[in-house]
Each structure stands twice: as structure tokens, then as C-alpha cells.
Amino acid sequence: MTPLLELVDLTKSFGGVKAVSGLSFAVNEREILGLIGPNGAGKSTVFNLISGVFRPDRGRVRFRGIDITNQPPYRVARHGLARAHQIVQPLPLMSVLENCMVGACFGQENLSLARAREAARESAVFVGLEERLATPAAQLTIAGKKRLELARALAAGPVLMLLDEVLAGLNPTEVERMTDVIRRIRGRGIAILIIEHLMQAIMGLSDRIVVLNAGQKLAEGVPEAVANDPAVIVAYLGDPAAAEALHREART
Amino acid sequence: MIGIFASLVDGVLIGSVYGLAAMGLTLIWGVMDVVNLTHGSVIVAGMFALYLLTSAFGISPYLALLPIFIAGFLFGIALYWIAVHRMIGRPPLMILLSTFSVNLVLVGIGTALWGTVLFNVPVTLPGLNVERYTFPGTHILAAVLTAVMAICLYLFLYRTRLGKALRAVASNREAAELSGIPTTRMLSVSFGLGVALAGVSGMLIATLFPFTVLAGDAYQLKSFVVVVLGGLGNPAGALVGGIALGLIEGLAAPFMPVSWTLIIEFALFVVVLIMFPRGIFAFRRS
Amino acid sequence: MTMLRRPFFWIIALVIAAFVVAPVVENDVSMRESLLLAAVYITLASNLNLMLGYAGYINFGSIVFFGLGGYVCVYLINTQAWPLALAAPAAGISVSLIAFVFGLGILRLRGAYFALATIGVNEGVQAFVQNFSPWGGASGLYLPVSIFQPLGGPMRALWIVYFLLVGVMGLSLYLSYAIKVSKFGLGLAAIGQNEDAAAVLGVPTPRYKALAYSVSAFLPAISGGLYFFKSAFIQPTDAFDLGLSTEAMVIVMLGGQGTITGAAIGAYLYEELRGWLLTSDTFANFQLVVSGALLLIIVLFVPGGLMGWIHGRWPRLKRVFE
User: Fold this and answer.
1) pLDDT in tens, A184-240
2) Best exposed site among C32, C39, C170, C313 by fewest CB in 10 Å?
3) Distances from the Cα of B136 to the Cαs of A130, B51, B209, B211, C299, in angstroms?
4) C117 CB near a chain B CB, below 8 Å?
5) How close C191 comes to chain A (CA, Å)?
6) Cβ-based contacts under 8 A for chains A and C
7) Which CATH class is domain A5-80+159-251?
């Protein structure tokens, strides 16, 4: 079975600093792959390389068998890859519905305006924004904006979603609701590559985990194995809170 | 007789003043990511300030430098509070329009007061005679004063607390804010400084060439070319870029009608930007 | 078509009808002339809106389309003996194509740099025309009165050209409306809100921007062709007058960027203001100052312009007056 997304020897430097170095891993269909690592490990850079915002210095990115390595972001989106950003990027003066319509119109589905409106409404309801369809995106709370990122990505009808710290800054109730939404997204057959700092959440969600440290892959495997990996624990020593959370996960 | 060599040296002298003008523009760009479309008008204001001070008050031209600098600084701060402060954080389109509209007002006032007639500030200085060539004293003194001001700017930015604070705001405004730097004050200071530099460069240009109220556009364009040549946000690069532009103009002048100079500069501006979106030697790395 | 059911469609039709009927009924030539100028302003403003209001790109040099269209049309009629009916559309198409090619290049620049590059395009074209003798160079081209013969003589020709210009104005209003409610318009709006996010969402940004730039050239070019044909004289300083594109910008911002009604109302208000200024002794010289001050006030305090303010207070009206 060919993987859905393949990263092969991906390398990217910024002015002499290697942000990502020789990174290779794959995401399979319908799986949730968690990408973790201490701060500055290069995780968001990986997302930028996949979605076409940056061009790698070396290496290739293959999606559904197609080499998408140097393609611009809008071409990548057309292939069926959608993204929710870490720093939310709403289209501020457009309503929630209109935001999602953009996703529906220009994503893989490439829908007409009328059908896009339906798909947009459906996605907005799916993430729980049905009360806010006409609200301008700038007026949403942070949690609302995060959910909009998800809805917008969902409306495109993607095959793979890149979720970049969608749980950051949310209170426990919101975290639980969001996690539930993510599970239901997978339930629709969409694969997910997720970056997250909330250790409990990401360990619970992911089928497999890839650990990144200083731009290189440190470990890969099922959550329990990774949580017990001594190299991983050492890497997190610079991040005591995360190390502790990891430790808790390892025990369970 | 002027040969190619003299033409080049003269180009360096004049180009340094272009660099001074561009330093003002690039400083504002670097610190607050604002493209100041009043830049040309301020240069012209500097020219007219010199004219007024010398003709109405009979002050010796180069003594006007400090008063013009101070006046420019205060004017820049006023401009910041009128047109720029409210616009920080708004879409870049809007800041562009706000400085553009102030520019319209300034040019309008200028044409209402002085029409579109040619003005001149006569400055007599002994020139430098090297073999067969004569280098005008005004050109030499302008370049020397530019060098002095560039050094002062460097010392200010790298050796004073205020300068360091400005650089901190330029590289990361949020972090600067969090470390207790009063960013709004820094933004207004940098705008004032940028405008002051532009005004003084106008004063120096007035000692070199005659001018009209509408001359601002041409010098603003030259400043933009210099900024992209030298790197957005990089004052040292602006000086180097200015000299480069002066050299290019010196080389091209015998071969090309004057009306095409601007077109070539525009083309240069567009082409360089398309190839190097952050300028050739960019300072900010965001 | 669903457009016919929307009330705004009929509002535009009403405006066009007013332009057509009023000077005919009154048989007033000076009214026709000032309405003609208004129609040109509305054409320029509503097409400028495609770049400025929808995609968020400032085109300082938008007048280049008007001027170049004028030159192409006048040249074809004068030197190649083309009839107006062919020359005007040809002007539109050729200028659009040129704009598309230029656009692909300069639209790689963002924000201020694009804005300045558009000035460069205008100045460059102007300099070229000034040195291009087949087009009259710096002194311009005069058209003989004989060009009005196919239209039935000068008096009739002026009326015909007026109606054609009103037609172009109407097309501009309908075009900007049609784009606004289309998928293309949604993409442009997304680009205007956040270009990078739009690209990640799949909006083909380079293609859309170039298309918007080229489409925004088409009707102004035809309008320029008609205008300079009627004037029977064209010269570079008139054809490529940056002041006109500045006025178009003030009109768009005054009326409300991104709205279609805004272009029309803005043009009307601006025309009135200008007329008052020119007749008042104190302010005749201050036209530029007033435009600038007006623009500054709008940008600082009412960035949505008149229609933006109206839509804010009475949201229901958004559906009716786009």
C-alpha cells in the first residue's frame, strides 16, 4: 500500500541554520500521525515545506503518488491537502460561511458557488460553528477562530489535513470538544498529520508518532513506544513541563 | 573637460546624497514596515526650507543644516501622529493610502504657494581642481556632510540606548514591547528621524541643482531604487546603493536623453524587486 | 438568469436610464457634457475597484489603460481608416492583452512595490508615446472633422459617443457586480483579505491577480478610445495624467471600496465637490489639497467610505445596494 504522504530526505536551511535535516517519514491513508518535538524542532517548517510555502533545499514530498515538491500552495491544495494554521489566518471581514466557501470553492472539490455554500455550511456545523455562520471572522473568539481553521480546511473536501497546534490556547472543555471533532474528521476517512504540544491529547489521538528534534527525526512508532523511548525523554529535558507530561504518558 | 573618470567621481559624490535620502526611507521601512509616500514632498520641503532661510534671512546655506534637521524631526513626529499611528496594524493598503493622501496635501500646498516655477539656491564654493577636472565644491561638501551624518546615524543606532531600542523594535516589535521598550515612542522617533534625514538630503540637493515643487517624485523614485538596491531596512546598504545609483547615472548620462533616466530607474526598480523581493542586501530576516 | 431577480440589477438599469433620458429630454448639451465626464469617472472608478476594492492592490497608474486605449483607437481610425465600431473594441482587447502580460510581471510585487510599479508602467508608456512619431509624439494627434462623417456629422456623433460611453459605464457597473457575486470574485476577495491564506486555501493567486488587472483595463481602454475620438485630439500629458487615476482612487474610497454603488455615488459626490471648488475663488488652487485631505479623513476614520458606513448602520441594505 503506497502511503498517502511521503517525505523523503527533506532538508531546509535558513541563513545557515538547518531547520529541517534529512527528514523522512510517511502518513498512511486514514491514519492520524502525530508530530511532536521540543520548541524550535522544526515542526511548523515541515508543514510549510509540505504545503508549498517553502521550497526545500533537498528532498522530495510525494502526495498520492504525485511529486508535489516545488509546487505553489494553491496547487498543493488542489491535490487534496488542506491546512489549519498555528497562528490563525482568518479572512477577517468575511463571514464564517464565506471563509468556508473559499475553502470549498478552491480546494480539491473545486465546487461552484452554490454547491460551495452547502459544503461550507455543512463543515461549519460539523465543527460547531452553526450559530456563527454570518459572523465576521475577526469577531470570533480564539477558540472560534481555531474551529474556523478546521471548518475551512474541511470544506475543501481534503484527503489529508495538516493541523498545526489547533489545541493551543484552549481551555480543557474546548480541548475536549476539538479532540472529538478531530476524531470525527478521521471517521470520515480523512488522514490527519497533527502537530501538538498537549501531550495527553496527541498521544491519545495518534495512531503513530514521529518525534522531531533540531530538525531531525528522533523516533517513530506507536505512542507507547515513543513515550518510553529514553532518547525522546532526554530531548524533552529542556522542556520540563512536556517531559513531565511525557513521563505521565509513559506510565499509562 | 570632464572625462569618464570625473563623471564617475562626481556620480559618487552626488550618489551619496541620494543615499542619505534613501537612509531616511529605509529607516522608516525597517523599523515599522511602512512605505512613506510623503518622502518626496519632505525632500522638496527641505529644498524650500533652505531657499527661505537663505533668501529671507540671509543665513549661510550650510548653517541651515541643523535647523532643517530639527524641524524635519519634529515634522516627522507630527506626521506620524496624524497619518500613521492609527494605521499601525491595519492592512498595508491603508497605510499606503494615508501617507499618499498627506503627500497630495503637501504637494497641493506647495503648488499653491510656489507654483511650478524653477527655484535655485546659489551657493558659491571653491571647487577642487585635479589635473584637467574641476569638482564643484558644493558636490564635495555635500558628500562630506553626508558621510558625517551617516557616521552619526551609525553611532546613534549602534552605540546609544535609544538607537538600540529602535533596532530592537525593527527586528521584533512584540519582543521589544515585552521587554519594556515603549514601542509607540520608538515608532514616532524613527519616523521623525527618517523625515529629518529626507529633509536634510533635500537641503543638500538644493545646493547642487535647481528645483521645482514637483521635483519630489523624481527624488522619491531614486530613493526607492536605492532602497531596493541596498536592501530594505539597511541604512548602510542605502548609502552604498545611493553611490551605486550615482555611478549608474554618471555613466549613462552622456548616452541617453534625460527624460529616459527616470524610466530606466523605474525599470531597474521593478526588475530588481522581482528578482530580489527583499532588496539585494536585506536587513530584516522575518 | 438569477441576476435578473436581484433588485440591484434593476437599480443599475435605472441609473443607466437616467443617464440616457435626462439630457435627451432636457435637450441640454452642457448637462450631457457633465454627465459624460461623470460616466467616464464611474467607468474608471468601478474598474479600479476590481483591483483596489476586491483584490486589495492599489493601482496608482490605472489611467494608463484609458490613455493607451485612446491612442490605439484614435490611431486605428485616423491612420488605418477603421470604423469606430471596430476600433474601440480593438483598443479594449489590445490594451487588456498588454495589461495581462505586464500584470504577470509586476503582480509578483506586493503592496507598496506593486503600487509604485504601476506608476512606472504609466510613466514608461507615456515616455514611449512621447517619442513615438507614428502616434504624434509629444505634440499629439489631431483628428480631422471627417471622422465624424460615418456617424452622421459632428452633432450626431457627439450624441452617439455619449450614449456609447454611458453604455460602457453600464457595462462596467454590471461587470463589477457580476464578478463580485462569482467564484472569481470570492477568490479576489480572499486575496484582498489575506493573500497567503488564500493561496493555501487553493486560490490560484497569480492567475487571478493578472486576470483582475487585465479585466480592469478593458472597459477603461474602450472608454478612453471613445473619449479621445470625441475630443478629436489626444496628447500624452492628457492621456496619461496621473491626477485622473488619483481622482478615481479618491472616488472609490469616498463611495466605498469594494462596493459597486460606491463608485457611482463617489463619482457624483466628487464631481459636485470639484465643481464647487473650481467656482469658489479661495479654493481653486487647492483642489489637490482638498482631495488629499478628503482621502486622509476617509482612510483614517471611515475606511469603508460612504457605502461602508451605510452598510454598517443598515445591514439589510447590503443585499439591495451592493
Assistant:
1) 999 999 999 999 988 888 888 899 999 988 888 888 999 888 888 888 877 776 666
2) C313
3) 75, 20, 12, 18, 46
4) yes
5) 9
6) 76
7) alpha beta
